[in-house]
Amino acid sequence: MLKLIKLELERNNLKSYIIGGCLITLSILGLVYLFAAIPHIDPSDPDVGIFLTYNGISALALIILAACFTILASVMYNKLVIAEYTSKKIYLLFSYPIKKERILAAKLITVFAFTVISAIISGIVIFSVFFLSEGLFQLCEDTLTIQVILRVAILLLLSAVISAALATISLWFGYWKKSATVTMVVGVIIASVFGSIASEIFLAQGRMQLVFVSIITIVTVFLAIFLIMRVSKQIKNTDV
Amino acid sequence: MPSELAIQTHGLYKSFGTKEVLHNCSLSVKQGEIYGFLGVNGAGKTTMFKLLTGLLTPTAGTIQILGEDITTQRESILKRMGSLIEVPVFYEHLSARKNLEIHLSYMGMENNFSKIDETLDKVGLKGAGTQPVSEYSLGMKQRLAIARAMIHKPTLLILDEPMNGLDPVGIHEIRELFRSLVQEFHVTILFSSHILSEVEQIAETIGIISNGRIVNQISLHDLKKDPSFNLEEYFISVTDRGC
Question: How many CB pairs under 8 A join A and B?
Answer without folding.
Answer: 50
